[in-house]
Amino acid sequence: AGIGGFAYAWVKYKDKPWHAATDLSSFHQFLMDKWRVDEFYGAVVVRPLAASARVAAGIDRVVVDGMTKVTAGAIQGSGWLFTRLQNGAVHAYGAAMAFGLVALTWWVTYPHPHIDSASKGDAVHLIAGLGLGYEYRWDFQSDGEFDTEWSKDQRDVSYAFDADAPLRGVEVRLIEVAGRNRGPYVQRLTEGDLVELSTRHLGDGWAVKGDTKAAPTARFAGGKLYIRPGAASLSVQGVDQKETEVMVAPGSTLQLGPFAKLRVDAVVESTLAVRNVFGNVAQTRETIVIQPKAERTASVRAPKAATLALREEAH
User: Fold this and answer.
1) Whose CA is closest to 190, among 269, 251, 307?
2) Is-above-0.70 flag for pTM?
């Protein structure tokens, strides 16, 4: 092989100046550079490992050491605080004990009502929190008249929504949509609210009326929900609506435009009164979202003056 290499070199360079042998092709240079294995290893292995090592060192310095310093500082600070309390002054200890006794007495002698709730359809399940000698009384609709008498057995109760009960508000919830949209959407309205429904959630092509570009609006007034379709078409419970403003009952489904279907849920409130063994009474309220059965939907055409006022308020 050596003799062959000498012979090949003599034939190739015998009539050329000596420096011609240093003018190598790129492939020849690649072979002479040991196939550049070292460069490849450095780029693929060494530099990524060095970068990850720098990142790990930064995490160790900032996060690990920082957590250690925070923990040490918290222990040092709490130690300083508690050593201030342990000052050897008997009257300070007595004051702390008296304050703790007052706080404990207040906690024991006054009830602390709490409600856990769940709903399915128009049925509501309520569970009151436990307490020392607690008796319970419920105002299911929060209408100011209690529906049960004082009893220790009324901790766990259920009731069905009364269609005539006052509503605290409604939720307009998007339940079905097609085309490009922003995903889930819920709009809650309470008394006096007037809002534009988000057209970014109603899918493509929600505007089907060429004479207007107004977004659909919803208002809650007098315990009732009113929908203005704007540039969208509107159907309630599968019935097309042509009116300027449509009153929609809780439990109804409505469709805005060709793709967006929404449901109207009712927002109700239940009140719990708790009395303990000392005769002290406390109350709390729980807001609950339910899905009542759909009632008849009334359509109303708003007068022009009211229409202008609503537009100005919405603007």
Assistant:
1) 269
2) no
